[in-house]
Amino acid sequence: MADVLTKKQRSYNMSRIRSKNTHPEIILRRELRKAGLIGYRLHYGLRGKPDIVYSKNKIAVFVDGCFWHKCPKCFVRPVTNSKFWKELRYL
């Protein structure tokens, strides 16, 4: 199945996807504050780019959505660049 968008349209759509301050991240941070868990850093410069880091306790939190975890309900494997997506192991 081919992409229904032109390369320019797909590029624009992908450019609108945020990598920081996503809705799930904001919800999690709000709940952490409510629970009194303060003192975290955002987007700390560690390998893997964790979203929230408690550096004193050496805890890194990654907020990944359904796509990256291959949620059986939501995940749809991308059609373009299929070799890359097939070989990708962390999905």
Low-confidence stretches: none
Q: Count the E strands.
A: 3
User: Strand order, biggest sheet?
Assistant: 1-2-3
Major sheet summary line = 3 strands, antiparallel
Total domains, how many?
Answer: 1
Looking at the structure, what is the overall shape? elongated
Mean pLDDT: 83
CATH level-1 class: Alpha Beta
| Overall helicity | 25-40%
How much is the radius of gyration in Å? 17 Å
CATH topology group: Endonuclease, Chain A
Instruction: Quickly give the structural class.
Output: alpha+beta
CATH superfamily: VSR Endonuclease
Query: Which CATH-level-2 architecture?
Result: 3-Layer(aba) Sandwich
Q: Strands, helices and their partners?
A:
Elements: H1 7-15, H2 23-34, E1 41-42, E2 52-54, E3 59-61, H3 66-69, H4 82-87
Antiparallel strand pairs: 1-2, 2-3
Note down, in words, how this protein is organized.
The chain has 91 residues and is of the alpha+beta class. The chain has a single domain, classed as Endonuclease, Chain A. The chain is built from 4 helices and 3 strands, in the order ααβββαα. It has helices at 7-15, 23-34, 66-69, 82-87, and strands at 41-42, 52-54, 59-61. Strands 1-2-3 form a 3-stranded antiparallel sheet, with no helix packed on it. The two termini are 21 Å apart.
